[in-house]
Design goal:
2 copies of one chain form a homodimer. By secondary structure, chain A is mostly helical. Chain A folds into 2 domains: about 45 residues, Arc Repressor Mutant, subunit A; about 150 residues, Orthogonal Bundle (Tetracycline Repressor, domain 2). Chain A has 11 helices and no strands. The longest helix of chain A has about 30 residues. Chain A is flat, with a radius of gyration of 22 Å. At the A-B interface, helix 7, helix 8, helix 9, helix 10 and helix 11 of A face helix 7, helix 8, helix 9, helix 10 and helix 11 of B. Chain A binds a DNA duplex through helix 2 and helix 3.
DNA sequence: ACCTGAACACCGTTCAAGT
DNA sequence: ACCTGAACACCGTTCAAGT
């Protein structure tokens, strides 16, 4: 926040305050949020932080480490509010929806966790799911498989959202025209060979991601209740 | 298959038969299968096909196009056998398991479809799911959401398998020690703060991916049957 | 039409050298 | 300890030139 004016000076302005891992991660998050995954390059990061490569590699192992830590940071704040003193069904919907919304707001986080689902940052999520399944009466032996299935579903949706966001960023479409394009392609499918796909094209163009996500969670919950 | 012997000759042996898109895709698939996603570089491809960059770009738009076509090719063969004249529940398990197994054998395909779930190659899969849901008595309006949820689940598992395979390829672990490492980390979670995760560590180390996948499908099917 | 391969514009990462 | 930035070893892609 200090040497803003020094822009075309001798060489690089050289920051007065010292760098920290937190500062680096924060800058990375902002770059990822505003420009997507491809916007985070080491070069761009050195420019933004007016520093050199070595400074960054001193605080962070490599780019993968940086991405993972950035994703952890984003998700860390989300998993706090959800507690289990309401109806477990409602709490489970809220918990999964919280993760959905966080990833919807930061699509690159979805891609990252889909790559590394065992990250410590997801521990709180697994724990929350597991406890609520317990509260729902799912027997201990089935709880692990059920939790895994639910997490996989959430991350599957997350990965898809991330990829949609990336495709949209590539062209300059907004969400609506993007979906309409996909729907048009589905509608072109041969009605004799692909009756379902052809018929579903309309719904594809109109559907709401968030609502459809919740329908999936509800199907899961309904199925899980048969495990009791 | 002709000029094998000419290895250290004048410059490059220059192929006698002409290149084709099919040949390129086939070579890409073999490289991806044996060396993972990072093994497919344009350079390596020119060497393997003893040709130049331009030849490849003449048959294929760019690397993304090549990857997508390779994934399509792998999946094309899989979706054939599954028909619906048995019990729809059994057929749905077989259909999803077919995709699971194909992706398990070619993890990079999972990563690719998780990125591009609207690829035409998945049309047959959507169609099969949609029809079987119809046979199960799921009403038309709910069928689209249910199919989407199921596909998301399958692709979520697929993406995770792909990432596990990549992590394992990085180090030299086999599946078993890889899972045991993850299980050890889960076991180290604070039992007071993370009782579920701590208790689930044992199952994480012992579980079978394929079986757990099917449990998830069954939960889905059970949940879906409540939509009737 | 089909192919060659040098050249270009990028990457992430390293490391001797500075403070 | 913390940082600099030139250099290195790669990428994917282009394009004038060849057949």
């Amino acid at each position: 926040m200090v040497n803003r004016t020094a822009k075309g000076s001798a060489r690089s302005p050289r920051r007065t305050d010292s760098l920290s891992r937190e500062l680096i991660i924060q800058a990375a998050i902002e770059m990822l949020d505003s420009g997507g995954e491809k916007a985070l390059t080491l070069r761009a990061l050195t420019v933004r932080l007016s520093t050199g490569y070595g400074a960054i590699y001193h605080h962070v192992k490599d780019k993968g480490d940086l991405l993972a830590r950035a994703a952890d940071e984003v998700i860390a704040g989300v998993m706090s509010g959800a507690v289990a003193d309401t109806d477990p069904r409602t709490a489970l919907r809220a918990l999964t929806l919280g993760l959905f919304d966080a990833i919807d707001a930061h699509p690159w986080v979805g891609a990252e966790f889909s790559r590394q689902p065992w990250r410590p940052a997801l521990l709180d999520f697994y724990e929350g799911v597991g406890r609520l399944l317990d509260a729902l009466g799912v027997p201990e032996k089935a709880r692990f498989d059920a939790a895994g299935a639910l997490v996989n579903y959430v991350l599957g949706v997350a990965a898809q959202n991330a990829s949609n966001a990336r495709l949209r960023a590539g062209s300059d479409m907004d969400r609506k025209t993007f979906l309409e394009n996909a729907a048009t392609r589905w509608a072109q499918a041969d009605p004799d060979r692909y009756p379902f796909v052809h018929a579903a094209a309309t719904q594809l163009g109109e559907h709401d991601d968030r609502e459809q996500f919740l329908v999936g969670v509800d199907i899961f919950l309904a199925g899980i209740s048969t495990l009791g």
